[in-house]
Design a protein that fits this description.
Strands 2, 4, 5, 6, 9, 10 and 11 form a seven-stranded mixed sheet that branches. A four-stranded antiparallel sheet has the order 1-3-8-7, with no helix packed on it. It is globular. Strand 4 and strand 5 form a beta hairpin. By secondary structure, it is mainly β.
């Protein structure tokens, strides 16, 4: 099973922006959609958003809607998470994963989890 690799995390001030990247570590693979999740210290991993490969349609959690945007680069087989207007509560380890399930938002419907990338938003 192909693993995904996240990158682009870092430390940013409130109101700032970051762009995370997600790419397969090995040979490319196909899936129905790509998703982003995050996990803050002491909290469960939560759904952030997903993009369907067929038409690039996206779906976001209410907590990030209007601030975060998922996009992709087909040539690089890479998916991005553009995060704007960051808040301290966005601080978490961010993960990407693939899904073969239509409308997936829960962890069990995703696979290929990477190690994550840390995003810290200072107040």
């Amino acid at each position: 099973q192909v693993q995904l690799v996240e990158s682009g995390g870092g430390l940013v001030q409130t109101g700032g922006s970051l762009r995370l990247s997600c790419a397969p570590s090995g040979p490319t693979f196909s899936s129905y959609a790509m998703g982003w999740f995050r996990q803050a210290p002491g909290k469960e991993r939560e759904f952030v958003g997903r993009m369907r490969w067929s038409d690039s349609s996206t779906y976001y959690a209410d907590s990030v809607k209007g601030r975060f945007t998922i996009s992709r680069d087909n040539a690089k087989k890479t998916v991005y998470l553009q995060m704007n207007s960051l808040k301290p509560e966005d601080t978490a380890v961010y993960y990407c994963a693939a899904s073969d399930v239509r409308g997936a938002t829960v962890i069990r419907n995703f696979h290929g989890w990477g190690q994550g990338t840390q995003v810290t938003v200072s107040s």
